[in-house]
Amino acid sequence: MTIAEQVGAPRIVPGRGIPYPSGDPNLPPPAERAWRRRLVQRALDAVATAVERPMIFEVGAAEETHA
Description:
34% of the residues lie in helices and 6% in strands. Helix 2 links the parallel strand 1 and strand 2. It is built from 2 helices and 2 strands. The protein has a domain of 41 residues. Strands 1-2 form a two-stranded parallel ribbon. The chain is mainly α.
């Protein structure tokens, strides 16, 4: 169970972890920018979605490229 779930956050969009909530230092700059764009888009989708219980909105990992 994540910290967000423990505190009862209604919408959860996981980042790479507490030290890197909106980035990934393991990715080269172009791939990291693409990942950040997907993260922000998913967060916007999450706030636009009505929820009745806590929901996790995953950021798609399949599109990631390590260029």
